[in-house]
Protein: Diguanylate cyclase/phosphodiesterase
Organism: Pseudacidovorax intermedius
Amino acid sequence: ADAAMRAAKRAGGRQYAFFEPHMSTNAHEQLSLQTELRQALERGELVLHYQPKIDCRRRELAGVEALVRWNHPVRGTLGPSTFIPVAERFGLIGQLGQWVIEEACRQMKDWARVGMPMRVAINLSAQQLHEADLVERIDAALRRHGVAASQLLCEITETVTMEDVNTTQEVFGRLARIGVFIAIDDFGTGYSSLSYLRRLPARQLKIDRSFISDLETSADARAVVDAVVRLAHALGLRVVAEGVETAGQRDILVGMNCDELQGYFFARPMPADQLVAWSRRRPSLARV
Ligand code: C2E
Ligand code: MG
Ligand code: MG
Ligand code: MG
């Protein structure tokens, strides 16, 4: 239902932007953002921030998730929710996605060089899954920078994996064959079935933030998360909780045997150079 709604919204929005004579500010805004985003990609205004994922058992940094930001010359730093939809709608996501792949690999190489090898997760959008040469380009970027494929993780949301089951299975299979790890993002929002999950060569399930934020107040949320952790473990998957903001949530998740935690409680997404300093201090890790 969620995916259908988003598809309807996309289709409706597209029509509106092109055929409505009196465009709303929002449609104008999107068109101007589109022009600016093209320039931004050429001028190098995009940047990746990295958010730590903490390994509960080992009490150390398990890796980071790369989250794209736009250092806009006038509007300041923009988050992906303002421009990823624009990129998807105006055919720029391929170029943006390629930049993310390239930049993440370059950064991984950099970290390895300073003695801090790092697992990095990148996010892939629905349209990227449909690019025929996606896996080849990821493979090429890894080779170009001399980074092991097993250091890279691709996060794809559960709803996207369900939009086109055949494509998902094929692309996941090819990613797995070159050695890249796969995580199913925002899990719990898409109602995928157990048998479907079993057929996907994923390594991680990332439980959606909405369940985590309700952990302390809702017995239902606790029951869902507990069940998801057990299900994932039964399928041989690691479980990551995203959006952990409080010590209470951390304690509940550790108690449920969750494998990795990610959220503002530990660290916000930060520029690459700050991550080195952060991981040297490791302030909150001792308390995991
Ligand atoms: P996501 O992959 O589920 O990423 C998690 C989002 O939650 C990030 O938002 C992160 O900053 C935020 N977050 C992390 N911890 C907390 C917390 O404790 N509390 C709260 N309230 N939020 C937290 P962000 O960076 O705005 O990214 C939003 C979405 O944009 C991502 O969701 C992902 O789907 C998409 N995205 C980000 N970077 C890329 C990219 O390079 N390519 C593509 N295709 N999509 C991207
Ligand atoms: Mg993600
Ligand atoms: Mg997520
Ligand atoms: Mg999300």
Q: What stands out?
A: The chain has a mean pLDDT of 90. The pocket of magnesium ion (ligand 3) is lined by residues 185-186, 206, 242 (CB under 6 Å). The first strand starts at residue 46 and ends at 55.
